[in-house]
UniProtKB/TrEMBL annotation:
Keyword set includes Membrane: no
Coiled coil: 6-57
UniProt gene name: Cenpo
Locations listed in the record: Chromosome, Centromere; Nucleus
Lineage of producing organism: Eukaryota, Metazoa, Chordata, Craniata, Vertebrata
Species, as recorded: Grus americana (Whooping crane)
Name of the protein in its database record: Centromere protein O
InterPro entries noted in UniProt: CENP-O (IPR018464)
Length: 276
């Protein structure tokens, strides 16, 4: 009957959405591998430059050999500059750009979701006498201090990578919520509730069955702040709803876990149009 046809259409929509998601993940993985290969090449060049600088700095005053393990201050500074320049080249491939300043380096982290450019955030670092954050435009709810404490002094590339993951995931979650409100306001009942970090979304939407409309209540929790898909999904329907809607709620819950929020609603709409 109609419900069997609806389930078939939802299954097809789900399969298509999963395939598209897998394709996007493969493209992202390829981009990461290319960036990693470039990073390894630059690390090789850095090591070569460091060795050359150490060899040049081995002759001290009076032509006496200095300790090879203790390169001159100038050699260390030159190596730091080369390292920063290499870092800029690596992260240019991953949405992070930067430029050297008189006191350090200024990074710009660009965010995007599914090919759509979103926001950019700036981070001004000082590199002398030690690396420290001078100023930034990162939102207060992003755990910048914790990330900096863990990585900034020991691995600046890791620091920027983790920070970028947090910012891109936040931008992706916010983008999905915005798309839902913009394109599916006729299905959403009331106001979509979300916190600043957009890692908790609560809303209701209507589902039709046998010429009647029933509300579905949704709670999406994004436990992994570096991910734009929820880790916990709860979809519930009214107690007086038909038994078949419980199966629909379960199918919707599974879809919310796997694909972007607005894409899930788009598949619901496509299924409804096909039934009509």
């Amino acid at each position: 009957g109609v419900f069997a046809h609806l389930e078939m259409l939802e299954a097809r929509a789900h399969e298509a959405a999963v395939k598209q998601e897998e394709t996007e993940q493969q493209e992202e993985k390829l981009a990461r591998l290319k960036a990693r290969a470039q990073e390894l090449r630059l690390q090789r060049d850095e090591l070569r430059a460091k060795v050359e600088l150490q060899e040049k700095g081995q002759l001290g005053k009076g032509g006496v050999m200095s300790d090879p393990a203790q390169p001159s201050a100038r050699a260390v500074l030159e190596w730091k500059i080369k390292s920063v320049e290499a870092t800029l080249q690596v992260f240019y491939l991953t949405g992070i750009s930067g430029k050297l300043t008189k006191r350090g380096v200024c990074f710009c982290i660009s965010t995007a979701y599914e090919g759509t450019y979103l926001d950019s955030y700036c981070l001004d670092l000082l590199i002398k006498p030690e690396v420290q954050i001078h100023r930034h435009s990162v939102p207060v709810f992003i755990p910048l201090e914790q990330i900096a404490k863990k990585y900034l002094q020991t691995d600046i590339r890791r620091f920027l990578s983790v920070l970028s993951d947090h910012l891109n995931a936040y931008a992706g979650r916010r983008y999905q919520a915005d798309q839902l409100q913009e394109h599916f306001s006729d299905q959403v009942e009331g106001t979509l509730q979300r916190n600043s970090l957009c890692n908790l979304l609560v809303f209701s939407y209507n589902v039709s069955s046998k010429s009647k409309t029933f509300p579905f209540k949704v709670r999406l929790l994004y436990g992994d702040l570096c991910c734009s898909l929820p880790t916990e999904v709860v979809v519930s329907c009214a107690p007086d709803a038909p038994v078949s809607l419980a199966e629909t709620a379960a199918a919707h819950s599974d879809l919310f876990r796997r694909v972007a929020l607005h894409k899930a609603f788009r598949s619901f709409s496509s299924a409804d149009e096909s039934v009509d």
